[in-house]
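Here is an idea for our session: we take a single protein and study its fold together. To get us started, please write out a protein record for me. Start from the sequence, derive the backbone structure tokens from it, and show both lines together. Go ahead whenever you are ready, and we will take it from there:
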Amino acid sequence: MRRSLITFTCTVTAFLLFCTATAQRRVVRTQSPVQEVQNEERGLKRTVAIARFSNETQYAKGIFYDKDNDPMGKQAVDILSTRLAATNKFILLERQDLDKIWEELNINGGEQFQTVGADYLIIGSITEFGRKNVGDVRAFSRSKTQIVQAGVSVRLVDVSTGQIIYSEEAKGEAETTNKSVMGLGQQTDFDATLSDRAISAAISKLVENIINNCMDRPWKSYFLSVDQDAIIISGGKSQGLNAGVVLEVIEKGKSVKNPQTGMMMELPGKFVGTVVVDYTGGDNPQNEYSLVTYSGQEIDWNNLNNYFIREIK
């Protein structure tokens, strides 16, 4: 009788444990910064291009690996693009094939000037990626946990100067756990979605700093054409320009070579006047323009590359 009672008790206990043993999944995430930024009105939209996002790890690099079609790199681009687009603060351009900053610049007589293109380039890479399994065996139960860790590095480049204005690396982790009791329960299978979630968790840690570094710098525009009928500048409705918006005109500072770094740098410019937007036209970010009225000091209209227009902070 006692042996039967013990057997019955063990059976009931195992059944209850089995009923409560469920597959557990946990993804380590930071609080998404996108939702917080969405509620803030921080001025005109910046134009951003993701130049490339490479996979610098050895993961999934077999004999038929093609670096131009790396799935992890494309996955990271999609995740970052989605995060930035959700803020409604940027116009995103397709630049995945660009790997050099100079492809956003035109060279004219040894002097560089900004064309109508991206204000900032994002260059990123997956620097770390790995999987591991952790098991836990007890008297009546066992569990197996899959863990994926990813490291992501990004650099933010100001196209007008070619300088890196922000660089950071972050790591993300995702895991899933399965338990079984006395051989009963869900078995652990390979979970491919953990890769996506680990990379997403790492990128989420960087998004807020990317946004802040872009938005803390004044929005810029440039003269496109000036004649007796109209003054036309780049940028339009999709970037937040509307009739009545007032912008300031800056004469560029002198370009000098910094002996400490060996790089050319532009000295601070000089305020010369303001423009008021009268009309906006164009149907996409690449061809939008605005007609403006200028007031202020006399400008050398034959050398429009000596000036730029920026948002008044």
Q: What stands out?
A: The CA atoms of residues 222 and 306 lie 10 Å apart. The helical segments are 2-20, 34-38, 71-86, 193-215. Confidence is low (pLDDT under 50) at residues 15-42, 97-101, 106-116. The chain is about 20% helix and 40% strand.
